Amino acid sequence: MDTPTEKEPGPHKKTLPGWLWWSLLGVGLYVLDQVSKLWIVHRFPLNYLNEKAQKYAYLPDFPGFHHVNADGTLDFATNAHVPAADLAQFQDLNPNTVEALNKLRELEPISFLDGAVNITRVHNTGVAFGLGNGTAWSSYLFLAIPVLAIVALIVLYRKNFFHTAWLKLAYVLLLAGVAGNLTDRLMQGFLIPYEQPHGFFTKLMNGYVVDFIDVTIPLFNYRWPAFNVADSCIFVAAIIFFIASIFSARKKEEKPS
After folding, report:
1. Residue 110: helix, strand or coil by DSSP?
2. Which helix (H) or strand (E) holds 31?
3. Residues recognised as catalytic
4. Which range among 8-22, 181-195, 239-253 has the greatest average pLDDT?
5. Tally of CB atoms within 10 A around 229
6. Does the pLDDT of residue 71 top 70, yes or no?
7. Which of 37, 79, 176, 195 gives the lowest tally of CB atoms within 10 Å of its CB?
8. Helices (H), 88-137
9. Element spanning 37, H or E
10. Please, which residues bridge with residue 215 across strands?
11. Residue 87: how many other CB atoms lie within 10 Å
């Protein structure tokens, strides 16, 4: 009687290593962040009025450009109309010129949901919620912090801190987000037209993060500070870390002493 023969094992299916999937996700998010920002810079170019506002921003008595109304009158950072007599001292900042008003239309935000969601262009030299935006020290501090953050993330990864799938996802999101905003700070200063006559270091220090998603929370009528894809990655990573810490604390409590 013939003994039953063992079945030959089927062909082994090759699967991509896990690190490759995480790398593809991180690179994909980084590319999405950079492509969206490049489109924003192209779609909302720095216009005549913004260039003049940057020029006048260094004058001690200049109140700060804020907005141009449909009728051509200027609002400044005080949210008040500047009297014609005061505006007369800034001869080439006349908002009634055809050139200025035509270029201004290019900067009209793309609105959705009755203005609750807008796509626009915001320069942020600070961090989340505009902290430090426009200050003299922000360019130095917030250029160094993301570099240190990336180094810290890589060190923690090598120490196997991100040992679960959720923590690995948070790691990828954080790395992509921090790298995306760091790229802005390193590159955007070199793309500003009125900075071209300046030297390398000046352009580098005038870098900024491109924010473009402007959302108003309906129930509270709260206008959330503008953000971008990189900021979203960092925000989601923070939520994952928070939830993971809660579950980790519960597991420690459930362990018998």
Report:
1. strand
2. helix 18-43
3. 211, 231
4. 181-195
5. 21
6. no
7. 79
8. 98-105
9. helix 18-43
10. 117, 224
11. 16
What is residue 14's DSSP assignment?
P
What is the rounded distance in angstroms from the CA atom of residue 243 to the CA atom of residue 247?
6
Q: Can you read off the two tokens belonging to residue 226? A: 């503008």
Q: Are 192 and 174 in contact (CB under 8 A)?
A: no
Token couple for 145: 């912090």
Strand order in the sheet with 222-227: 110-112, 117-124, 209-217, 222-227
Full-model pTM: 0.70
For position 115, what pLDDT does the model report? 78
List of long-range contacts for 192-198, beta carbons under 8 Å, 24+ apart: 192/46, 193/46, 193/51, 194/46, 194/51, 194/54, 194/55
Rounded-to-integer distance, Cα 115 and Cα 245, Å: 37
pLDDT at 155 over 90: yes
